[in-house]
Prior knowledge:
Layout lengths: L2 H27 L4 E8 L2 E9 L6 H16 L4 H14 L7 H15 L4 H24 L6 H29 L4 E10 L2 E11 L3
Antiparallel strand pairs: 1-2, 3-4
Helix pairs in contact: 2-3, 2-4, 3-4, 3-5, 4-5, 5-6
Amino acid sequence: MNILDHKVMQEQTTDEKDRIQKWQDRREKAQCGFSYEIKKQQEEKTVVAATYLDKNLTQTQKIELQLATLYTATGTINPEYGQILLNQTISGFSSQGRDIATTANAAHGALLAMNPQDEYEGMLCCRLLVLHDQYMRFMINSASPNQSTQLIDSNINRATKLMRLYNETLDTLNRHRRKGEQKVTVQHVNVNGGQAVVAGQFTQGGG
């Protein structure tokens, strides 16, 4: 091994450690403390929060953890509406190749990472997840072999419409999140042959 190869390996090792650390930091912030599992209840399969990372929690603490995590994932303090949003998101996902518990954990984790701050953001974040999942489904369908050109075009057209809706929803979410930011426009004006900087416009969103 020459010096150059050794240096490249050191750089790769540093990059990998940094990558792992970033992943651990984000994962820790988004950790919900429990996962969803499928439980059979009266001949029906129901997804419930069954596995807890901390086995020493009391029943009251488990309930509080579920409610607090549901609030963080959906942006609403109303647990009934938070459950509705989460259920709608899970139902909107394609079930192809996934069981419902995997979908529930994936959707819940993604919503925690998106961190909606109120009900409006919760609705928009849930919508983004479903739109993305459906968009990917139609794009995957368009790549399936032995399809007619008409069917490929149909899948791509549907995917394009979903992508447009996704972008519009994302823009709406970003505008809502910027509503409280202060905007300052700086203009330059000439003063007696020199130049002075003045604040030309101040706008304050959100009242």
